[in-house]
């Protein structure tokens, strides 16, 4: 799902669900920040569901979010392209950890006989996955 920029918004494009958020300003309206990242600015900090992270300096007056301060508190990578005056905001990592959930995406693999097996069909069983790459 893509959110396109509004006439008065500084959000150029945001692809939801753990994808980078592209901004043309590092101070954005709180509702746009929440829609793009899933982190809702509240008086107690930045919240996703029941998890709230104190974010001093991230919440500004007038319903704005300082993206640099929010990124620092949530462990979100933030990079700037000065030639285009754009910033890209990555997903929250909390101290450098790449996963924000332990839920594995749906995988469909083949067994030794060539039959498709979904990971969810193995729910409740112990599963060992071995991955290998030549590079």
Write the layout of secondary structure elements.
Layout: E1 2-4, E2 11-15, E3 21-23, E4 27-29, H1 30-37, E5 40-42, E6 45-48, E7 51-53, E8 59-60, E9 64-66, H2 67-74, E10 78-81, E11 86-89, E12 108-110, E13 116-118
Antiparallel strand pairs: 1-2, 2-3, 3-11, 4-9, 5-6, 6-7, 8-9, 10-11, 12-13
Could you characterize the architecture of this molecule?
The protein is mainly β and 135 residues long. It is 12% helix and 32% strand. The protein has two helices and 13 strands. It has helices at residues 30-37, 67-74, and strands spanning 2-4, 11-15, 21-23, 27-29, 40-42, 45-48, 51-53, 59-60, 64-66, 78-81, 86-89, 108-110, 116-118. The strands form four sheets. It has a five-stranded antiparallel beta sheet, with helices on one face. A hairpin with a 3-residue loop joins strand 8 (59-60) and strand 9 (64-66). The longest helix has 8 residues, at 30-37. It is elongated, with a radius of gyration of 19 Å. The two termini are 33 Å apart. Mean pLDDT is 78; it is low at 1-18.
């Amino acid at each position: 799902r893509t959110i396109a920029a509004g006439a008065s918004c500084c959000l150029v494009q945001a692809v939801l669900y753990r994808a980078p958020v592209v901004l043309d300003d590092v101070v954005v309206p709180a509702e746009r920040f929440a829609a793009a990242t899933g982190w809702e600015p509240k008086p107690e900090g930045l919240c996703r569901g029941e998890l709230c992270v104190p974010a001093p300096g991230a919440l500004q007056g007038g319903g704005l979010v300082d993206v640099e301060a929010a990124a620092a508190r949530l462990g979100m990578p933030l990079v700037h392209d000065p030639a285009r005056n754009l910033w890209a905001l990555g997903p929250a990592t909390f101290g450098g950890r790449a996963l924000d959930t332990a839920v594995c995406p749906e995988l469909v693999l083949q067994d030794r006989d060539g039959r498709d097996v979904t990971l969810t069909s193995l729910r409740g069983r112990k599963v060992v996955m071995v991955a290998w790459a030549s590079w």
